[in-house]
Recover the amino acids of this structure.
């Protein structure tokens, strides 16, 4: 997702189509710093797993580490989802931005695959 101003952004669909639209509510996130810190740790962990594969480490060890990374991604995803519901979605509902609710439904469908 690419931001052009605080309320307008572009989504790139699976077929490569770009859709730009704006919301009438601000996207304020209480946990941005914590999310970014967790993501940095996840990236570091993935780089470590990549080195394990490059070094020919035991497949079982690699799979265990990949499970840990997957769990960390799910955890940070829950934080983002809860933060979005608690702040963005509440503001969107107050502003009558029902498109935001539909976008969340679509994101949940993709998240839960």
């Amino acid at each position: 997702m690419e931001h052009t101003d605080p309320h307008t952004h572009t989504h790139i669909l699976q077929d490569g189509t770009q859709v730009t639209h704006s919301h009438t509510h601000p996207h304020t996130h209480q946990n941005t710093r914590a999310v970014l810190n967790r993501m940095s740790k996840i990236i570091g962990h993935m780089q470590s797993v990549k080195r394990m594969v490059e070094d020919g480490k035991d497949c079982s060890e690699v799979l265990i580490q990949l499970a840990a990374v997957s769990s960390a991604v799910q955890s940070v995803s829950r934080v983002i989802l809860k933060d979005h519901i608690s702040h963005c979605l509440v503001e969107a509902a107050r502003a009558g931005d029902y498109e935001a609710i539909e976008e969340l439904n679509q994101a949940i469908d993709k998240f839960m695959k």
